[in-house]
Design brief:
Layout: H1 7-19, H2 25-32, H3 36-48, E1 52-58, E2 64-70, H4 72-109
Antiparallel strand pairs: 1-2
């Protein structure tokens, strides 16, 4: 199964893991609004790229769980992805403002 990791998912996943390293894959999927399979794929891809390390720990129900810790390379990637995500959102915002201004001008003409 081929998964594509969008910039938005990369941004949200790296941001969430930076703040919640003990999040379960199920929690990540719910928070990001993506499938559990996609989260699993992303985590493995990030680990393979050296962006994350997975550390075992025992959770409150005595099951083995993982803490996903951003590596220095992962922190750099988070900054880069955040910058790109912000630039895209600013461009979308500017475009929306222009569209709103044009609609308002159109309404004034009628």
């Amino acid at each position: 199964m081929e998964h594509h990791i969008t910039d938005e998912v990369r941004y949200k996943l790296l941001k969430y893991l930076g703040e919640h390293p003990h999040a379960s894959q199920r929690e990540l999927a719910k928070e990001l609004g993506v499938s559990l399979g996609k989260v699993n794929y992303c985590l493995h891809a990030f680990i393979d790229k050296g962006l994350l390390k997975a550390r075992n720990f025992k959770n409150s129900t005595n099951k083995v769980a993982y803490a996903y810790v951003l590596t220095p390379r992962g922190i750099e990637e988070k900054i880069s992805v955040t910058r790109a995500f912000l630039s895209r959102k600013i461009a979308e915002y500017d475009s929306l403002q222009e569209e709103i201004a044009a609609l308002r001008a159109e309404m004034d003409l009628k």
